[in-house]
Amino acid sequence: MRPGSLARLFVLSLMLVVQSAQAQRTLEHIFSAPQVRPSTGNQSVFVLEMAWTGCGGWDQDTLAVSVSGNVVTVTQTITNGGGTCIGATGVAFPIGSFAPGNYTLTYQAAHFAPGVGTYPPLTTQFSVGTGSIARVPALSPIGVVALAAGLLVAALVAVRSKSRVVRHRR
Amino acid sequence: MADSGLDTTHPLVQSFSGSSYVGGNFLSAYSADFGQNPNDGNVDERQPVRAPAGTEAACVMPASHPTCLGEPSTNGFDCMVGSFVGHGTHTFGLLGANRFGASSDAMQGTCRHCGIGLIRVARTACVRIGPADFAVASAYTPTATPPAITAFAQSGAQVVNLSLADGLPDGYCDGGATHPYCVALAFLDANDVLLTASSGNHRADIQFSAADERVVSVGGIDETGTFWDESPGSQTNCPFYNPNTPGVPANEVECGSNYTRDLAKRFQEFVAPAKNVRSTFHRDATWNARLSCGDLYGDSSADGIGLCTGTSMSAPIVAGVMGLLRSINPLVPKGDPASSVVYGVRNAVRDTTDRALAGMPSTERLGYGSPRAVDAAARMLGKVRGDIVENRLTPLFTLYSAGGLDFASVATPQSAVALIRYSSASYSTATNPVSPTTPGYSAFPTELPAPPVPRANAYVLTTERTPMNGVAPVPLYWLDRARPWPLGCSLGQPGCAFYHRDSILVASTAHVEAAVADGYAFRGRQGYIYPRCPGDAPSCKPAGTERMYRLCKTADDDCAVFLESQFGAYQALGYTSVYPAGADSVVGYAYPNVDSDGDGLVDGLERIIGTNWANPTTDKDSDDDGVQDGVEFPQAGVSLSDPCVGPNVTCNRLQNVVFANSFE
Predict the structure, then answer these.
(1) Burial of B214 (C-beta count, 10 Å sphere; 0-12/13-18/19+)
(2) Do A98 and A161 sit in the same domain of this protein?
(3) How far is A84 from chain B (nearest CA, A)?
(4) Could you report the per-residue pLDDT of A35-72, keeping only the tens digit for each?
(5) A83 with B122: Cβ contact below 8 A
């Protein structure tokens, strides 16, 4: 191996370590204390209510809800910037309707700039009684594809992260 | 500026009231909504928007409510209307509100005549404001900011303000990071667009994007000029202090200006008022009651002017100063306060802050200090024979789009680059009739490959002040109208100039209003010219000027602006009719692009500052100090020495003996 190649490998390894460290940085979340309840505006629709610092923001168009059995996953792109604080203490995002049953909901936010770090997932449980029956939010074909693609990307990232660590240990 | 939105009908910001031009600085032609509805140019935070199914009842107005009706996007649907709004209106006013006087509704921003576009990077959202209370507010949409600031640079903005922050780590954009935010900052830098941003309000490290060295970071001071800190040495007086959780970072929210806590991190560049700052607001609106931020704070009347606190207020104040300086000399680069290799706008502000003028060093909290607009403007204007000059000249760049059938004339490099690089009707400075290159200014600042060299036929004044010759100038307004030509033709059709555009300059509000009524978009001021006098009387037509014409070629739906020395050439091209109908073909008087003595300054500029201009053998150095006038008083730079102070002064400008001892 040429000396230059060795140096490049070293630099590459260093970059991977840095990236890996960045990916594991936990960011200060702008939301907390999630709970799910029927909307006061439409009892057949449920809202995910969370406490909010009043700072930072989110991209409404990226809010996605997926349901698999009794597991509800809500994802969204946010930022924890602090220069735009407003006098608010919480948010209530409509997340659709659910069939009766007991659910576990996980809210997973992603920073709008990838690689900055991760937000801890927020989890809550809720029950839907027969009086609240509406419809299970079926995933559209696009939603199915997006969910599958997301899972695939997540799996690939996990595999790559693992291989980076292994490579570094060599 | 990219912000939460704007009350576009506020009397202190609107440029038009109905069809009447009323002189405000809001320019809808540069404005867009990137946070709510990208297809909608409406940036008003109080516009009704469709309420998503399941929105909390307290936030929703029924479809039958008058507020919901009449809006194409919401008609027939329940809607939401923001009540906690006004951040963008407040910051806008600090930069460019312009009602002057002593009345209670008077308010002026730091840049009196800066045309300002606003791109909305927020959306209307239902938020909780109490244990069981919900209300409608503007919430920040982070993904909208990078495209917003890019759009400003592509449309010719010279200064962009961000009174917001994003949670990106220090140095995130170092080393060629490819995130859209980083790409956007690099794009602004390459195009010499100044970006000012608030440092943040949590007594923490300076936040992104102010944390990027290419961005002017602006921290805050209070009413006494002291660094803004609500609770020095403790958290107990912080507005969000929770006695049950002492010491936690959450208590620091909105408690004071961010600053350079770690010298290895971003340096605070400037500070400006942040505490209880008075500015424009939506009438009767509150942005943040906990921070006493809203229309009713300060004087408790719903008059559209109120107080707010935060470095969001500091940044636009400095942005306005930067805009003022760039209007005085649009050719001066933005500069770098950490270096004087290229002495630019940031350097001029750095050297004229309160601390700089008092001989005090920079500090981690106050940076270089608080800008003093008057002194910064004086620095940008320059001194001749000891006097601050009243006015300068800058080239009116001449451009032509063959595909768009349009002659355009603009007074800033950024606008010229926007037309050349980022307009659908791509323009060039290689025009026929040919305009000469610009002495002392050889290249536009933009990304490679290099664009065509700057060319101009005319030079215009840059301030509204009467120059030495005693004739008061009038503003030159830019408008344009884009429409396929011939009308109704389609893209790709033979003979169709689909991206046709007509750019015009007018010098009266009546002509502004006539053009807007004809579908032209108003784009603000492009310098100043002398008004026409009856018969071109020598007593009022300044020496060395030429008549500036606006004549149109009906067949091309195009008007051109040019000086009398090119009158015959434009007539031969078919530019023979006047616009508006019945208007004088002569717009006023401006100076030709002629540098007779070859010192890098056009004759007109030397006439108004008082240096010699006629003879290439004897006039290049008016004070005989061995340094040519164009070096001492550069066309495209900040003058750091006086061209009329030397061993043998032959300037035309009289020495100011009245104020020679600095007594005024």
Answers:
(1) middle
(2) no
(3) 5
(4) 999 999 999 999 999 999 889 999 988 999 999 999 99
(5) no
